[in-house]
Amino acid sequence: MTGGHSGRGRPPRHPPRSLSDSRRPTARAAVRRHIVPALQSPRIDSAELRRYLTVVECELAMPAPHRFAIDIETISTVDDPDFSDPEHWIPFCVAAGHLAPGDDEPEVEVLFRSDSSIAAERRLLDRTIDWIAERSESSEPLELVTYNGESYDIPILQHRAAEISGSNPGVGVRNRLDLLLYSAEHVDLMQHVVDHRGYHASLDDVLDDHDIDADEPTWMGSKVDGSDMPEMGLELLSDRENPELRDAVRRYAASDVAPLFELHDKLSGRKVLK
Question: Any idea which fold 66-268 has?
C-alpha cells in the first residue's frame, strides 16, 4: 500500500506442507494411533497441550493451501486524499507473491501499469488476476494474505474494477476480480495485529517485533517509504524513462509482500511442527 498506509513507513487454516505427499498418509495414521488417543486421556490436563495436539492432527490431515499475497502502490486522485475512501486512489503497480505448499521461499513479482490510460489500468488488473490464476490449483485451498488489505487494497481494487467495467461494457475484469476474492480466504494480518494488540501498528514495526528482515531500498540517498509512492508513481507513468526509479519502486513494493508469508507463519503459529 501507499502513502504510508500499508505500514511500511506508514493483518489460514493450515501450514505449508512439511511432508511429501507419499509420507502424509503414514503420518496421518501415526497421528490417529498415538495423538488422538492421547487427547482422550485424563492424564492430559493441559489446555495448551490439547490445543497443540488438535492443531497437529488437523494440519497433517488437511490439504495445505496455495498462499498468495498482494500489495498495491497508488497515486491519489485528489489534493487531500482520505485513505479510507477508495475513490481517492488509483493503482500504478501491484506486488504479487506466491508460496506453494512445501516451498520455503516465495515467488514475488511487481506488475507495473504501462501508462495513465484506463486501458493500461485494466491490463494491470487482468495481469494480476492472471498471475494468481496461473499458479493456483483448482483442487487446493487458496489464501490471499495482505497487510491492511481489508481497508485499503481490496476496496480500491474493487472500485477500480467497477469503474473500468462501467466505462467499458463487456470488459470482464470486475467479474474476474469478484470470482478471485470469492474463491480465496482473505487473511488481513493487520486485523490480527489489532485483535491482539488493541491498536494499529505499521508493517515495519510488526516485522521488527518478529525479527523478520525486509528489503530497504533507497532513492537519492534516502530510504524509500510509502509516502514517496504517489510522486514516484506519477513519474513512472510519464513519458520519461527512469529505470533506476522503477527499480527502487519495484524493490519497495516487493518488500511489502515478501515478508508477509513469514509474518503469517509467526502470527498464526504455522511453524508449530518445526
Answer: Nucleotidyltransferase; domain 5 (3.30.420)
Asked which of 33-42, 80-89, 193-202 is least confident by mean pLDDT, the reply is: 33-42
CA angle 75, 80, 82 (to 5 degrees): 75
The size of the chain, in residues, is 274
From the list 87, 94, 92, the residue with the least C-alpha distance to 72 is 94
157, exposed or middle or buried, with CB in 10 Å at 0-12, 13-18, 19+?
buried
Q: What does the domain layout of the chain look like in residue ranges?
A: 24-61, 66-268
Strands 107-112 vs 222-223: parallel, antiparallel or unpaired: unpaired
Reference 84, options 134, 21, 152, 135; nearest CA is: 152
pTM greater than the 0.85 cutoff: no
Compute how many other C-beta atoms are within 10 angstroms of the C-beta atom of residue 31.
18
State pLDDT tens for residues 115-157.
999 999 999 999 999 999 999 876 677 999 999 999 999 999 9
